[in-house]
Design goal:
Layout (H helix, E strand, L loop, with lengths): L2 H21 L4 H17 L1 H12 L4 H19 L6 E6 L4 E7 L2 E6 L4 H14 L3 E6 L4 H17 L7 E3 L5 H9 L3 E7 L2 H8 L5 E4 L4 E5 L5 H13 L9 E7 L3 H10 L3 E2 L2 H11 L15 H8 L10 E4 L17 E7 L2 H14 L3 E7 L3 H10 L2 E6 L3 H5 L32 E7 L4
Parallel strand pairs: 3-4, 3-6, 4-5, 6-7, 8-9, 8-13, 9-12, 10-11, 11-12, 13-14
Antiparallel strand pairs: 1-2, 2-15
Helix pairs in contact: 1-7, 2-4, 2-5, 2-6, 3-4, 3-6, 4-5, 5-6, 9-10
């Protein structure tokens, strides 16, 4: 690695460390005022940041990115604003234990190109709430938007009384620079959102890390499901930001008794069912020769994907659907596709449906998210017990349910996949993950 790169990382970390050591002595009121101002300024700029992210990456839709940015500032803020993070945060009188919140120090935040500005807003808010500094390692494809978001946040924090240097970005992102940041002895925690290789690198850096890997969300529509509502959810979710949220649905698993009704509803929602020849053409485009997802189709609309591949579909097509029977690494329809393409698997019983969803998760995305549409609570519970997923969503949208927008899960842009998915937590990561707790404990025995 060039000396220049080493110097940039050293400077960033030294600046962050100095700023954080000042910030550590701030009161809860001072911290909350800073977090509130950051939330307000990011909310004011939600549209500007959405336009920038869309123009720079070519992913998704501006209208949906505005919703994501708004969620990352407003709903995340609402969920953490009353959390005590400074000094004595809890007195457990009966146990004679006093709990004290302490910051971690300097956090490294890895930012993907798929949700660049929303992830920056979210990670900055939870870091500032817990008196940490944060250095972002941006995906090069979204550098401009990430810099813009971080600048708005840093300015808002300083304006509200924070020391300068709490929120910074690697200006020339490379794998070497990210690696140097993650391995730096003064980094207290790495918050890694990105591809599998990046998450593994975070965990092998020698520093504590919370990493989240890929999803491959299966959706079971059982025989009892409210079909209209289920398909409303699936189509809204899968087309949201053109399917770029990793908790969006990837494969429909449909009980054969309701298959005709499911197909009818999907067609009413402008889904296009591909024939074998079209499916084969599209499948060659989903994955690259290396077996990784083809970035050319990520976050594109269904009609744009069709044009790219050379198949002819109506302009208003919402989702491309391919009927499938095989699950395996070689079959892209049984893997993660961050674009409006769905595999459709038919099953002859609830038990087979559960087994098929388990197989899809085992193929890719273990530990992430699974969805069921059912009107039987017992089925939802059996499904939840069986799935190797950290979030089991019932009768809601995968993309927005998992992040806590349509459910009461913690609002988060970083979704833990648990030990089963190579992650250190199954939680939706939020502010309390960025704070350590000291305990004063009196002898009672």
């Amino acid at each position: 690695m060039t000396e220049l790169k080493v110097k940039e990382i050293e400077t960033l970390v030294a600046t962050a460390k100095e700023a954080q050591s000042k910030y550590e002595s701030y009161t809860q009121e001072q911290v909350d005022a800073i977090v509130k101002n950051v939330y307000q300024k990011t909310l004011d700029n939600a549209e500007k940041l959405a336009i920038s992210a869309n123009e720079e990456t070519g992913f998704g839709k501006v209208s949906d990115k505005i919703i994501k940015n708004t969620f990352a500032s407003e709903q995340v803020y609402e969920s953490i604003k009353d959390l005590a993070t400074v000094g004595v945060i809890n007195r457990r009188k009966e146990d004679k234990i006093i709990e004290i919140g302490i910051p971690l120090g300097v956090v490294a935040g890895l930012i993907p190109s798929t949700n660049p500005t929303a992830t920056v807003i979210f990670k900055a808010l939870i870091a500032l709430k817990t008196r940490n500094a944060i250095i972002f390692s941006p995906h090069p494809k979204a550098l401009k938007s990430i810099l813009m978001a971080a600048e708005i946040i840093e300015k808002a924090a300083v304006e509200a009384g924070a020391p300068a240097g709490l929120v910074q970005v690697i200006q020339e992102p490379t794998l070497e620079a990210t690696s140097a940041l993650m391995k730096h002895e003064d980094i207290s925690l790495i918050l890694a959102t990105g591809g599998k290789a990046m998450v593994q690198a975070a965990y092998s850096s020698g520093n504590p890390a919370i990493g989240v890997g890929p999803g491959n969300v299966p959706v079971l529509i059982d025989a009892t499901a409210d079909i209209k509502h289920a398909i409303d959810c699936v189509v809204s979710s899968k087309t949201f930001d053109n399917g770029i949220i990793c908790a969006s649905e990837q494969a429909l698993v449909v009980d054969k008794s309701v298959k005709a009704a499911v197909i009818e509803e999907l067609k009413a929602k402008k889904a296009y069912f591909m024939n074998e020849e079209e499916s084969a053409k599209v499948s060659q485009f989903i994955l690259r020769e290396t077996g990784t997802l083809n970035p050319d189709i990520v976050g594109k609309s269904a009609s744009d994907v069709a044009k790219l591949v050379g198949i002819s579909v109506p302009e208003e097509t919402s989702i491309l659907i391919s009927e499938q029977t095989e699950i395996g690494h070689h079959n892209p329809y049984s893997r993660e596709k961050l674009t409006p393409i769905l595999g459709l698997f038919t099953v002859d019983s609830f038990e087979t449906g559960v087994a098929t969803c388990k197989a899809l998760l085992a193929n890719e995305g273990t530990g992430h998210t699974a969805v069921i549409h059912t009107t039987k609570d017992a089925n939802a519970e059996i499904f939840g017990l069986e799935m190797r997923a950290s979030r089991i969503l019932v009768n809601t949208l995968g993309a927005l349910g998992a992040i806590g927008a349509t459910t009461k899960l913690a609002p988060s842009m970083t979704l833990g996949c648990g030990a089963m998915g190579g992650s250190s937590t199954t939680d939706n990561v939020t502010a309390h993950h960025l704070m350590n707790v000291k305990r004063i404990a009196y002898g009672v025995e």
